[in-house]
Amino acid sequence: MQGNKRYQIAKKVVFLSASANLSLAIIKIVFGWLGNSQALFADGIDSFSDLFSDFFVMMAAKVGSHAPDQEHPYGHGRIETIISIILAILLFAAGFGIIFNAGRSIWHAHFVKPSIYVLLVALVSVLTNEGLFRYISRIGKQINSNALNISAWHHRGDAFSSIVVLLGVGGAILGIHYLDAIAAVIVALIIIKMAAQMVWHSVRELIDTAVDQATLQQITDIITQIHGVRAVHQLRTRLLGGLIFVEVHILVDERFSVSEGHFIANQVMKKIQQDIPKIIDVLVHVDIENDEQITSELDLPGREELLSRLKQHWDGLLGCNEIRQINLHYLRNKIEIEILLPLAILQKISDLEDLKQQYQAAVRDLNYITSVKILLL
Prior knowledge:
By secondary structure, the protein is α/β, with parallel strands linked by helices. It folds into 3 domains: 3-206, Alpha-lytic protease prodomain-like; 213-287, Alpha-Beta Plaits, CATH 3.30.70; 303-376, Cation efflux protein, cytoplasmic domain (Alpha-Beta Plaits). The protein has helices at residues 3-34, 38-64, 77-108, 117-142, 146-173, 179-206, 213-224, 258-275, 303-314, 352-362; strands spanning 231-240, 243-251, 279-287, 325-331, 334-341, 369-376. It has a 3-stranded mixed β-sheet. It has a 3-stranded mixed β-sheet with strand order 4-5-6. The longest helix is centred in the N-terminal third of the chain and has 32 residues, at 3-34. It starts with a helix and ends with a strand.
């Protein structure tokens, strides 16, 4: 999905979430204060933290949707990850603050019976947040937004928090006065747990954690189904802002041309991105040998140096000045050579095989050359 369209969708969702959080936060704080419910008041503070969360999610979606540029060739998805960590820190602060206040009330045994309408507010909060969780989670999966998915789970956490408020306030109304404060502590622990999960997920992205084993196997299966791919090795993946980057080596037939190998690599890239939309970048290395098992010799000469040596060894041989092209095949730490001569050379020789043997014999002291073949144009 294009970055701008992704941002526009996220913008609408976050606006809805922010409006709901603002309304719930005000209602819960006001009624929590008027209704003498520490748990509902804490739940309202939690909703305000989600309001800040929505603001940061919007920032993350906007900045993260920017296309790659010269300074950020892999895009700006990492910004979304960093903002998620900032959100988690805010949640940690809110959670510990609630625990401190509730603990102080329990320690000093300072309890006031909550009003009955606090239960109604808590019930409305449960239903609203569960509905928002289901909606935002669905949209987050559609556009592959990690920040939206986190925002959705905020609402699920708020729904659970409000359920705890319901139980705590209900118990306090029935005479178990400390249950309201205990409910506030439980709400805070839920917030802290969510914050810890957010940090863990975001840190995994920052240290380039790979995708899960099931996704890795899915990618491997897709690649091996492409015609021309003999094997897959050195498959590497990393997460970035809810998206996936892939780097892989594919093994093709050693006699394939460079252009055919490039075509196969493009087929691999297109198929992976088509079947797994979260994958936005694929780098394919085309190998003719498994470089995990075979280490190329570093002392083999390159084309320029080798052609200079061949010219010296073949000087004076029939057809050496009529060579149209020389193909080099670096295979199994050796070099195979193909010489392309014009068809007219047949008028000057009686046996093509004998000419090939002459070229082969002339480079016998170059022990890294395994064969010399002559092809006619």
